[in-house]
Amino acid sequence: MATTLCGRLLPKQGWQPLMQSVRHGSKAVTRHRKPMHILKQKLMAITEYIPPKPSTPPGALIPRARPVQEENGLVLLLKKELQTIFQECKMIAVIQNNSINSEDMLHLKHRLRKHSITIKFIPNQVIRSFLADSPYINMGPLFIGPTVLFVSKEPKVKEMLLSLRTSPQMILLGACVEKTLLSRQGVLNYAKLPSVTMVQGELVSGLTMLTSRTASLIRRPPAHLSLLLQQYLKQQAGDASAETTPGDSPADA
Q1: The CATH number of 74-192 is which of 2.30.29.30, 2.70.98.10, 3.40.50.1950, 3.30.70.1730?
Q2: Which family is annotated (predicted)?
Q3: How far apart are CA 120 and CA 106, in angstroms?
Q4: Please, is 170 exposed, middle or buried when counting C-beta atoms within 10 Å of its C-beta (0-12, 13-18, 19+)?
């Protein structure tokens, strides 16, 4: 029994284990490339071969002739209409149309028509092409997206703003009022100004008050007027004597 166990447990002669640890030698690199000398680097940079650039094909230098697109009759007609609008109308407002329905647009047209304000639908491409050759070129950035024009021969800014309050889909972007470009805030400030008739009335009332005072003074008795003139002369003489002192007189000098 003992012989059998020893024969099974003890390794036989010539038997090798399944796993063996083999130790290899060091693989460290001891030889490194020496850096190139600076003079040799310069020499290599100078003598480096630079291949020539490939020649350009002869047909590549000829610019392509772009066909000139002539404007059709509709574009010319719209430009002529724009020229008439900018010459005759004193108020040209740019409004952004945010998907207003046809019924609301019809009501807005009727409200604006009461104040002699017209809505014009002109493509932005035509408007920008017209503004590029006109003094109103700075209005070009306003025509982006769906826009319409509110035009009127008189600067009826207050009426236009009141009509736009009932249509929130229509947003004011800017305007040209009496040949002057205004932003949205500028249009709002312009609407707060008094009307021309009111200013003229205030001016006439002020001038009338001055003339009435002058007439009332002239209508007074001549004696009262002469007393006033004498009192005025005395005041002027007293002021002149107070300003001149004895030390400043030419005789003392």
Answers
A1: 3.30.70.1730
A2: Belongs to the universal ribosomal protein uL10 family.
A3: 13
A4: buried
Give the pLDDT of the chain (253 residues) as one tens digit per residue.
555 545 555 555 556 666 666 666 556 666 777 888 999 999 999 999 988 888 877 667 677 777 777 778 888 999 999 999 999 999 999 999 988 898 999 999 999 999 999 999 999 999 999 999 889 999 989 998 899 999 999 988 999 999 999 888 999 999 999 889 999 999 999 888 877 777 788 888 888 887 777 777 666 666 677 777 888 888 888 777 776 655 554 444 3
What CA–CA distance (Å, rounded) separates 224 from 222? 5
Which whole-number Å values give the CA distances from 209 to 9, 16, 19, 182, 205, in the listed order? 139, 134, 125, 37, 6
Quick one: which of 118, 44, 134 has its CA closest to 80? 134
DSSP letter string over 45-78? Answer: HHT---PPPPPPPGGGSSPP-PPPPPP-HHHHHH
First to last CA, the chain: 160
Q: Which amino acid is at 56?
A: T
Domain assignments of the chain as residue spans, ordered by start:
74-192, 194-223
Distance (Å, whole) CA 221 – CA 99: 76
Edge-to-edge strand order for the sheet containing 180-183? 118-120, 147-152, 91-97, 170-177, 180-183
